[in-house]
Amino acid sequence: MNLILLEPGDFLDSGLAGEPGSPVITTLRGRRFQHITEVHRADVGDTLKVGLLDGQMGEGEVVEHREGQITLRVSLHRAPPPPLPLTLILALPRPKMLKRTIQHATALGVKQLYLINAYRVEKSYWQSPWLSEEKLREQCVLGLEQAVDTAMPKIELRKRFKPFVEDELPDIAAGSRKLVAHPVTDTPCPVDIPDQTTLAVGPEGGFIPYEVEKLQEAGFESVHLGPRILRVETALPVLLARLFPGR
Amino acid sequence: MNLILLEPGDFLDSGLAGEPGSPVITTLRGRRFQHITEVHRADVGDTLKVGLLDGQMGEGEVVEHREGQITLRVSLHRAPPPPLPLTLILALPRPKMLKRTIQHATALGVKQLYLINAYRVEKSYWQSPWLSEEKLREQCVLGLEQAVDTAMPKIELRKRFKPFVEDELPDIAAGSRKLVAHPVTDTPCPVDIPDQTTLAVGPEGGFIPYEVEKLQEAGFESVHLGPRILRVETALPVLLARLFPGR
After folding, report:
1. CA-based nearest residue in chain B for residue A237
2. Which domains does chain A have, with CATH numbers?
3. How many Å separate Cα B128 from the centre of its chain?
4. Candidate from B191, B234, B239 with C-beta closest to A107
5. Which residues in B lie closer than 8 A to residue A49 (C-beta atoms)?
6. What is the ipTM of this complex?
7. pLDDT at A110
8. CA distances from A200 to A116, A234, B108 (A)
9. Would you state the pLDDT for residue A173?
């Protein structure tokens, strides 16, 4: 938790009104209280990095510390890092990897994510409790707190590959550079591209040829990452670091 | 297991002698047998990617499939991917992350790895059973099988930061570009460098200022990865993708 992420509801008592940048008061309990006192070991007078969900970032000074709750005077005056110019289309990972993948993608600055079906996505993966809106949101919050960012990613689930690629993807990807990560191609993934990008990443074992063809029909270009075959959780940071180094 | 990794001991019966590239026979049991029959669902006549540990890669044709064992006719004729021109100095991660980090680093092509102590490495991490030579080797094998590579990384453990950095690191890093990943700097991590590189990566929470100073005294330059703070397991693929895209 490199950032204490605040939500509008945290300011119900004090209000977020007043001059932009003027300090407001919030009292935290539960997970954030525990983290601030046990990991940061912060006490009255200490200052922490804070950010308002989907809003500005700044500092929070501890002004009171009591049993089970801690009160911060919060000043927000800095924009979060700019989002990556990216829509990520990701074949649904196995449940064990889903949590980590959502956290990693969020920490890397992904703001638009479609989790889609593919031939090598096992049907049972769609039953995972980690796909509930609440659980996905929890992982996103962890990713934002890690990366020091406030902009919540939007995650959409699409359980049918063909209707998604044929009917919806053309609009989603319109005007963007369209890439699909696919080990079996001669074209290396480009480095440091300025364009708005739509990037499709397959499941373990990759998209099947039919799926790659459908994506190519939709204008997607196959690119590879080098001589080694990487798991999705390793491939994703590698892809984003190549496409958008330092962003 | 995108590659069936063979070891010299697998050829005890048939020998590895003869013309280079001439086929030899090996019979596999246990984990590899299970994977070949249950995941690849390979049977007599099918061909699998194989590689000899620290040797060549090629194909293995299934020539016999019996209860609990499978026999391959192996032909090795292709070099593994070239190693990254890198020595990685990594503060020992917490045990939960250690396994994954070793697998990821191996899959990314790291061949020289020092796991070192740092102020923010908890003492207890050094007690992890995952630090045994056998367990580290297991994780490396998984990384090689994933990435389709045969060159086993060399991993060294150094439990004292100062003697390592003062007495040993100068020789290890001699003649190489020296970088330390450190969020608090203005210099971005370079992209696509041709040089042999020594890269130091801190623990969760980063190296402390004293440690960064010691590394700077040893000629290391601090570089950052962009506006977001990443976990070691995400930062590592991002760093290597920036330094050596496509390698």
Report:
1. B238
2. 4-78 (2.40.240.20), 86-243 (3.40.1280.10)
3. 19
4. B234
5. none
6. 0.89
7. 98
8. 10, 15, 21
9. 98
In angstroms, the CA A78 to CA A63 distance is 21
Inter-axis angle of helices A95-107 and A232-243, nearest 10: 20
**C-alpha of B113 from chain center:** 8
Could you read off the pLDDT of A60-69 as tens digits, one per residue? 999 999 999 9
**Do A230 and B192 lie within an 8 Å CB cutoff?**
no
> What kind and span of H or E run contains B140?
helix B133-147
Q: Per-residue confidence at B9, pLDDT binned at 50, 70, 90?
A: confident
Measured in angstroms, the CA of B149 and the nearest CA of chain A are apart by 7
Q: Cβ separation of B149 and A228 shorter than 8 Å?
A: yes
C-alpha distances in angstroms, B179 versus A72, A216, B72, B88, B89?
38, 40, 45, 10, 10
Q: What is the pLDDT of residues A10-20, one digit of tens each?
A: 886 665 544 55
Q: Do the beta carbons of residue A79 and residue A56 sit within 8 Å?
A: yes
| Helices B232-243 & A232-243 angle (0-180, nearest 10) | 50
Residue of B nearest to A189 (CA): B246
Whether A144 and A150 have beta carbons less than 8 Å apart is answered as yes
User: CA nearest B208: which of B141, B171, B170, B161?
Assistant: B161
B17: pLDDT confidence band, cut at 50, 70 and 90? very low
Lowest mean pLDDT among A5-14, A203-212, B1-10, B27-36: A5-14
Say if the Cβ atoms of B146 and A229 lie within 8 Å.
yes
Amino acid at B152: M
Query: Is B41:B29 a contact under the CB 8 Å cutoff?
Result: no
How confident is the prediction for chain A on average, in pLDDT?
93
- To the nearest whole Å, the CA of A166 is away from the closest chain B CA by 31
Write out pLDDT tens, residues A73-83: 999 999 999 99
- Which pTM does this prediction carry? 0.91
Interface residues of chain A, partner chain B, Cβ below 8 Å = 2, 81-82, 104, 107-109, 146-149, 188-189, 191-192, 225-231, 233-234, 237-242, 245-247
Distance of CA B222 to the CA centre of its chain: 24
